[in-house]
Predict the structure.
Amino acid sequence: MTASTITDRQPDPLDTEYVLGLVDTALDAIAAAKTSAQLKQVRIDHAGEKSPLALANRAIGTLQPGQRKHAGQLVGQARGRVNQALAARQAEVDAAELEATLLAERVDVTLPVDLHPVGALHPVTALLNDMSDVFISMGWEVVEGPELESEWLNFDALNMPEVHPARGLTDTLFVDPPSDRKLLRTQTSPVQMRTLLSRDVPIYMVSPGKVFRADEYDATHLPMFHQIEGLAVDKGIHLGHLKGTLDHLAKAMFGDVRTRLRPHYFPFTEPSAEMDLECFVCHGESVGNPDRPCRTCKSEGWIEWGGCGVVNPRVLKAAGIDTNVYSGFAFGMGVDRTVMFRNNAPDLRDFVEGDVRFPRSLRGGAR
Ligand code: DAH
């Protein structure tokens, strides 16, 4: 017999020694598998459908019935041992891999957290929300109006005659085509008229929002800024209600301070007033007191806050409201300016340039 015939000779798949040899080889391979991927391959090689043990199992069918019992036991036990070893090793490998994952993904919950700064509302938005909240808590409604407004609602309906200086092209940004008489609203006051026209009295509403004017862009002016408008219309409303409401707002926003009304002119209110806020920093103590100057009110004791008055009956009549029964008060104030003096912000340009250091630098910080 030549060497080649020995190697070429097919082993008898049901030879006892051969089958036991297959088991030993399989057990060695199982013990050597370190990962579930390796063990998967070992399972295919030694217990899979094409493994020598499976072939041996299939060979049983070719035997004479009398010979099958012994062969069946031999192969059955062999396969049982291999499968048991596979299951045991699988459990070990799984446990080891789980352990490794837990170690690798370990989180020390006692470590200080890396706090990523989260976004914050713009200081103007935050203040608008705060001011609106004061009114919501009194049962007032918050109403919004469009920024692109008709000339009629922005001016005419508010008793602003055509000759009023605010209607000159220098202040107002009209929108093409001129024949549409559309403009970027110069004030939130047109929302008063929109509300009067669309709702029944009594009305208690505030309207925060953006307004636009053809102003310079400098430390104290922006072509786009924010106002909050207020309107109350009910039976028997008078100036005292306006004063009480403004004092309440001032206290809610700035602590124990008062407001002051100075006679003024607005076409849509009569009488009209400018309202001042008692300085919430020095409470007037800096006035005539050079030893204690106040930067917030420039030692004047009062800060200009906005305009207000008793609603001109012509405005109510334009909305079809019976002025013998109903009267109202209205007010409007600049919100960017309020943030400025409330938080000691020196330059209005910082409000729109988007540098996050700005809100962080404000007194009281970003909110
Ligand atoms: N709209 C005025 C302005 O932009 C402010 C104002 C004054 C609003 C008096 C009012 C008001 O509602 O009654 O200067």
Notes: The radius of gyration is 43 Å. The first helix runs from residue 3 to 8.
